[in-house]
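Obj.: predict assembly geometry.
Materials: sequence records (below).
Method: joint structure prediction, all chains together.
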Amino acid sequence: NAGVMQNPRHLVRRRGQEARLRCSPMKGHSHVYWYRQLPEEGLKFMVYLQKENIIDESGMPKERFSAEFPKEGPSILRIQQVVRGDSAAYFCASSPSIATKAETQYFGPGTRLLVL
Amino acid sequence: DQQVKQNSPSLSVQEGRISILNCDYTNSMFDYFLWYKKYPAEGPTFLISISSIKDKNEDGRFTVFLNKSAKHLSLHIVPSQPGDSAVYFCAASATNSGGYQKVTFGTGTKLQVIP
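Observations (raw structure tokens):
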């Protein structure tokens, strides 16, 4: 029973390029959450998605960032025209249903994005 | 604006002794508190939680204490073991109108248990 999978695990991009981060939830999970951990900070909520729906994107930067969770395939966090300040660890979590208890969110290993 | 604060970035404890990790929060709307453990190159894994209606929750070697009036919680690990060496994140959540909990994390405390 595989856990939450994220790929790539490490991603290096030059300023101005696009970054695509993928998250495959645990089997049977249809809810996905993205968190970002900037250096020396805690994880911060970005967006909560269900299949084909964005439920809460209150933590997403207004520009350059987008997220989707299609009917088939992984959830994608897309960062356009990356800047050095986007360098961070991006964690995905999934839950089988709406996370009425926070511990039902299971975290993936993260993608470390480095912008040169 | 760091709503969940862990003021000690690191802590070293001798094996067999008690480890005490502290956490403060500022948002009175938080009604659920959690501790996560994180090893390098892995995601956080849930350790223990406590509801705001309680002041203590125990699970084996791990006990979480909550002082609502002080907006403070702590995690006690006793006895500490070398395998407990990891980064520990304090987290807090509030159930919003959508019925789900959005989790706010602290900056983490790196615990080293010395054999």
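Conclusions so far: Chain B touches chain A through 28 residues (CB under 8 Å).
To do: check interface contacts against the pulldown list.
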